[in-house]
Specification:
- By secondary structure, the chain is of the alpha/beta class.
- It folds into 2 domains: 193 residues, inorganic pyrophosphatase (n-terminal core), CATH 3.90.1640; 118 residues, Diaminopimelate Epimerase, Chain A, domain 1.
- The chain contains 12 helices and 12 strands.
- The strands form 2 sheets. Strands 3-2-1-4-5-6 form a 6-stranded parallel β-sheet. Strands 7-8-9-10-12-11 form a 6-stranded mixed β-sheet, sandwiched between helices.
- Helix 2 packs antiparallel against helix 5 and helix 5 packs across helix 7.
- Bound molecules: manganese (II) ion (MN).
- Manganese (II) ion binds next to loops.
């Protein structure tokens, strides 16, 4: 039995023995975190285990209206007796809920390459496309099928983290999982429309501003876009409507790193990074952020102008532009 198979079996065994579970996901939750949570809630319901997702008040959960029944989401810290199942989160410090100092039994299920293995049990596979894919495998391990809604949530999570099956992390195992999820009731066309096929005019106008103002750096090997509070106000678009802009920038031939820095005028700047053949999680790490080699992010103080200047300097150094 490989270590990976042993980890999966240990998590399945632990899940069967639970009586009270608190799910936790990474801060700034994305489609994969929400999909994985919806899948785990479904499995625990089928095992007869009481489980809820806990987040800090005010945390925005994308696609929650579609995939997370409100009765299963609690704003605030989990009860002390609950086992914490941390999903899609590379370190305990990045969880979207404060756990306090108290020692809690923790099961860590994740696919970030830099995961600190902070759980008492860890199912960590840096090669997996998504945490949703790992949850799908747990379903197989438990010999349980997913309800149609949970299957759709997991399929959406996988689609989200693979950029709809285009990233290098998309494997035969990914498609095996998706085949199973479609058999369980996930509708590929519906999920596609939900994630990628619906865009408001306000969102397109925001995209136009971001792309129109994007600045080349590191001799054109990086492309840096920025959006200010004024851009959001002028277009009426919301922060989540920036999803995809940075991927569009990265799609330009010759661009190895793309970044989008955005602020809503509260002194905080959120930065999303994408790359081809360059570790952007290391850049995000310089500002306390993290993620994957090809997709990472961080939040920092300052203005978008200052942060973009900082990124430009760092990328000039790291993309070895000596010859240009
Ligand atoms: Mn993920």
């Amino acid at each position: 039995m490989t270590a990976r198979t042993q980890e999966l079996a240990a998590v399945c065994q632990a899940m069967r023995a639970e009586s009270l579970v608190a799910l936790a996901i990474h801060e700034g939750p994305d489609g994969d975190a929400v999909g994985a949570a919806a899948g785990m809630l479904d499995l625990f319901a089928k095992l007869g285990v009481e489980a809820h997702l806990f987040v800090e008040p005010g945390v925005v959960l994308p696609l929650a209206a579609e995939f997370l029944p409100p009765a299963f989401v609690v704003a605030g810290p989990p009860p002390a007796a609950a086992t914490v199942y941390a999903l899609d989160c590379g370190s305990a410090a990045r969880l979207a809920v404060k756990l306090g100092d108290q020692r809690r039994r923790t099961v860590n299920i994740d696919h970030h390459h830099d995961n600190t293995r902070f759980g008492d049990l860890n199912l960590v596979d840096g090669a997996a496309s998504s945490t949703s894919e790992l949850v799908c495998e747990i379903g197989v391990g438990l010999d349980l099928r997913f309800s149609p809604s949970a299957a759709a949530a997991l399929y959406a999570g996988i689609s989200f983290d693979t950029g709809h099956f285009q990233h290098a992390s998309t494997s035969a195992a990914t498609f095996d999982c998706c085949a199973r999820l479609v058999a369980d009731g996930a509708d590929p066309n519906r999920v596609y429309r939900l994630l990628y096929g619906t865009r408001s005019l306000a969102s397109l106008r925001l995209w136009a501003r971001a792309i129109g103002g994007a600045r080349p750096a590191a001799c054109g090997r990086a492309l840096l876009a920025l959006l200010t509070a004024e851009d959001f106000a002028a277009t009426g678009a919301a922060d989540e409507e920036t999803e995809g802009i940075v991927d569009a920038l990265r799609s330009v031939p010759g661009v190895e790193v793309a970044a989008l820095s955005r602020s809503h005028g509260d002194g905080q700047v959120k930065v999303s990074l994408r790359s081809e053949g360059f570790d952007v999680s290391a850049v995000a790490g310089l500002k306390g952020g993290g993620g994957h080699r090809q997709a990472a992010g961080f939040t920092t103080g300052g203005t978008v102008e200052e942060v973009t200047q900082w990124l430009s300097t760092v990328l000039d150094e790291r993309l070895s532009t000596a010859s240009c």
